[in-house]
Amino acid sequence: MTVEIFSRLPTKSLLRFRAVSKSLCARIGSPAFIRLHALRSPKKFLCIHHDGYKDEGIYKTKNFYTFHSEGQLPYNSYMGINPIKYPFIDARSTFGSCNGILCLRAFGKGVTLWNPSTRRKVAIRDPRTFRGDSPVYGFGYDPVIQDYKILRISHPTLFVCTVKTRTWRKIASPNECSRVTSYQCLFNGALHWVETHVRTLLFDKYTYYDHHIMTFDFSSEVCSSIELPEPTWETSGLAVIKGSLAVISRISVRHNDCTIWVRREYNDTSAFWSVAFKLNTVSYGNQVDRFFQLTATDDLLLDPYGRGIKVYNPETEVLSQLADFSASSHIVGMYICVESLELLDMGNSCYHGKQIARKKAKPKK
Q: Which residues form the F-box associated beta-propeller type domain (predicted)?
């Protein structure tokens, strides 16, 4: 009964209850309870804000983040929502989210796993590679070994790192591997991303771009591909809408209208793409980097780079924007995550952007 009740409590309360007794602390920190609590936690939106302001004539900047449930998105104001200092320099470095853990890229240093609910982080260094390498990362969970994995795409080589061991190893890569053109999307235990192949015909005079979806299964560590819907000219993002894989694209270079396709699957034997939404009033077309869907209202959240978070109603075709926290700040990123206790038994504390170090007791004279 204790486990059933505690698995539905907020993370903040569970962190406090660990001080009640040793047995309760061990139960809350057990891997089985942490996984159960993550499965039962509702999804939330984490907004990262960038604020530029003047202090005594000097221009300063700061980054902070806010948590929102589906019914608390800031359409008008942030009443009752407390901002928390963002503990990293680059506010746009997040590229993956799984079970409440955000995976961030640190240029030249590797990746960092960060749980904003427990404010703990784990740093993992990159393997030795050639200079000038610009890798792309992916993040997910392997239920077979019950561990998180990080995929490093460094064409034409793929590396995988298991978080518990923090060791990298090279794996087999697909025959063709080209430029990654979208954010990764975690769906059914596999990582999905859009790749672009540049193909040249007729004595290098004509060039066209071939887009397709690449997948990576975290358990089998096998890559495969999925054909994109036709016709499509530019594909700029993947997402999960009501339990199905979805992609956003433009149909031609001269049209700004966007189409969101959903891949329907039946009995795991056949799958086909169908049109779910047409964004007829969006004028920036291929500049939509990511998109989400609010299950409560069926509105779409669009994340065009550098333009704030847009809210689009498919029925009324009305486009609005989420409110900024203040007149001098704007939202630079939004991610879906859950409140979880992951990383509770590893890594370092990360509170208000500073690592909390344990004070060493001074030796007695």
A: 94-292
Given a contact cutoff of 8 angstroms between Cβ atoms, the answer to whether 199 and 252 are in contact is: no
Closest CA relative to residue 349, chosen from 117, 34, 150, 141: 117
Residue-wise pLDDT tens digits, 50-97:
888 777 778 888 899 999 887 788 888 888 888 999 988 877 788 888
Task: Report pTM.
Answer: 0.84
Mode of pairing for the β-strands spanning 136-142 and 120-124? unpaired
